[in-house]
User: Fold this.
Amino acid sequence: MYEAFFNFLKPPFIRDIPEAELYINPGLEELCGRLGYVARNRLFAVITGDVGVGKSTAIRRFVTALDSNRYKVMYISDSALTPRNFYWEVLNQLGCEAKFYRGDAKRQLSKEMTILIESHKKTPVIITDEAHLLSREMLEEIRFLLNFKMDSYNPMSLILVGQSELKDTLKKQIYEAICQRIDLRYHLSPYDRQQTEEYLKKHLEYAGETREIFTDRSINAIYEFSHGVARKINKLTIACLMHAAQLQKRIIDDHMVRLIIEEEFDW
Assistant:
């Protein structure tokens, strides 16, 4: 509805915007650069950030930039991930049928990793999303997974991505052995006020709109509500655009933004 009213060629605040059209702030650019370093050197990385700040966007951009002839990416997102399921999923993405018992599957994975590296000349990159939900059993398994060839060789890049509480979890004494193995830690922060404005303009340009739709004060109100969290920005701006289209208004001011916040988001 609002797309036609504003003459948008494409919806501006959707999740599946092509990587080339995404707004890339310095923090996300730095994260992608560091992840490239992790992939090249087969390191262990832990990436954290609050809900909706763009962790998945960063991972998507990072994976897209990898050379598929040099890297094999395996992505896992399972809130109830167990060691057996982990091995099953990784082996399945490698095109193998996993053995039933965990120990057998672990040895099978080591063998397949060696084949991938030595025969196919590819580096395995395993990304585990929603890692803040991993159980103690699964985190301990990651420790043993990294202890390859008596801790002298790392056959893969392993990247854990999770919400901010993952940092607190890994600080506990029982995970000290895992913490010592982390090669790269990065916490992705929300946008500041200027970046929030740049984000809005970039996505409106993607939709084919170069006119000023949001006033400076309305952007202030959007930032105050969202605290620079991309997902909150998206939800609020879509609601504002829908409301503006219904009222036949082509400019969104701070009064409209605050009205939408009060009526639709203040609960």
